[in-house]
Amino acid sequence: ETRFTSPSHVIPCLDDGHVGSSHQSRQSSVLRQSLRPIILKFEELTYSIKSQTEKGSYLFGSQEPKPNRLILNGVSGIVKPGELLAMLGPSGSGKTTLVTALAGRLNGKLTGTVSYNGEPFTSSVKRKTGFVTQDDVLYPHLTVMETLTYTALLRLPKELTRKEKIEQAETVVSDLGLTRCCSSVIGGGLIRGISGGERKRVSIGQEMLVNPSLLLLDEPTSGLDSTTAARIVATLRSLARGGRTVVTTIHQPSSRLYRMFDKVLVLSEGSPIYSGDSGRVMEYFGSIGFQPGSSFVNPADFVLDLANGIVSDTKQYDQVEINGKLERLEEQNSVKQSLILSYKKNLYPTLKEEVCRTFPHDQTVVTRSRAKSSTTNRWPTSWWMQFSVLLKRGLKERSHESFSGLRIFMVMSVSLLSGLLWWHSRVSHIQDQVGLLFFFSIFWGFFPLFNAIFTFPQERP
C-alpha cells in the first residue's frame, strides 16, 4: 500500500494551523485554509439515455421500445493535485457528459463510483469545486471588475471584510491578465464588449475567487484563436501547479497545447481508448500497431483520427471526397472495437491498480477535515448580505432598461395624459374618475410586471 505524496512541481498547501510571515495579510491566510488537495477518482462510469420513439411508429401498431443510447461506457481514471487532465474525443463522444458527471451536475442514473478523497460528492465538496461551462453565463451590462467584485462579495467567507474581498477580486484580475479590460463591459449578443478569450478568463476568474481545490472546465478554448487558447491552457496549468486538480475537455488542441497536458483521456463513442500520461500516447498506439502516416504529426490529431476509426491520413479522406459517402464504415467500426479491446487488455488493469492503491491523505488530515465538517457546511455569507448584493447587482444590470430614454418618455407621456384627464374634472363625473383610477392601477401594476416575467427565465441556473 502506498500513500499519495505531492509531486515536486506542486506548491504545497499550508496547514490550517500554520502561521508564518509569508502571509501578506489575513485575507491570504483565510483563503489558504480553503485550499485542500483533492484526489479525483472515477471507476466504471456508465451512463445511458432513453432513445425517443418515432411518433409514426404508434400509428402502425409498432410499439417496440428502442434500446437505450449509451453515452458513457466503463470510463475510469484518477487525477491527483498538481495534474492537468485533458479529455479528448470527437463530437458526441461523451466528453461534456463525463465532466458534468464529475461535477455532480448530471441528471439521470449514473452507474459506477466517483470519489473525492475517498468520499462521495457532498455539499462540502461542491463548495471546493469550480465548474466552468462551455457557454459563458455572464451579465452583459456589467464590467469585468463589477462582475468579479459581486462574485467575491457573495462567495468569499464572512471573515473577510468588504475591502479585503474587493482586493481579492483585483488580485484575480491581475493574475488572469484582465487589467487592460477591467473597466469594459462584458457584452453580449446585442452589445459589444470584451473578446471571447477575455470573457472565458472572466468565467475562470469567478471560480478562482473561492480558491477551489478541484476545477472542472468544459471546452474552455472553443471559438478562440491559437494564441488565446494557449494562454488559457497555460493559465490552467499554472493553477494546477498551485496544488489544484484541474480537469478540462478540449475539442481539437494544437501540438503546443497538447504538450501542456499532464494526462490525457481519449474517448470514442463513450468508451475509453487511452488513459494515461500525455507523453506516452504515440508509444502506446505504436506498440499495438497504429503508426501515424508521417513523423511530423500532432499527437492530438492522430488520436482523434483513431477515435473516429480512421487509420490512414489521406486515403479515407480522398475516398470520402470522391465517392461522396463513407464506404469503409465497417472497417472504421472494427478499428474502434480493436482500440477499445486493446485498452481493456493493456491499460485498464494498470489503471485499476493505481486507483485502488492510492490513498487520498494522511489519516490525521482526514480526521481533522471531518472534525471541521460543521464549519465547512456553513454558508460563506449571511442571508441579508446575499440579498443586498443580489439586489444591487440586479439594479446595476437592469438600469439600462429601467432608465432608458424611451421608457422615461413613455412614463412621462402617460402621466401627462392622465393628469390632463383628471384636471378640472367635476365631482358629478365620479364614474369617469373611478375608471381613470382603474387605469392607473392596471398600468402601474402590469408595466413593471412584464419586465419581471422576462427576467426569471434569464436568471435560471
UniProtKB/TrEMBL annotation:
Keyword check for Nucleotide-binding: yes
Transmembrane parts of this sequence: 405-423, 435-456
Domain ABC transporter span(s) in chain numbering: 40-294
Entry's localization field: Membrane
Keywords: ATP-binding, Membrane, Nucleotide-binding, Transmembrane, Transmembrane helix, Transport
Molecular function GO labels: ABC-type transporter activity; ATP binding; ATP hydrolysis activity
GO cellular component: plasma membrane
InterPro entries to which the protein is assigned, alphabetical: AAA+_ATPase, ABC2_TM, ABC_transporter-like_ATP-bd, ABC_transporter-like_CS, ABCG_dom, ABCG_transporters, P-loop_NTPase
Major localization listed first in the record, in broad terms: membrane
Membrane topology: Multi-pass membrane protein
Family classification: Belongs to the ABC transporter superfamily. ABCG family. Eye pigment precursor importer (TC 3.A.1.204) subfamily.
PANTHER family (alphabetical): ABC TRANSPORTER G FAMILY MEMBER 21 (PTHR48041:SF24), ABC TRANSPORTER G FAMILY MEMBER 28 (PTHR48041)
Protein name, UniProt field: ABC transporter G family member 21
Taxonomic lineage of the native organism: Eukaryota, Viridiplantae, Streptophyta, Embryophyta, Tracheophyta
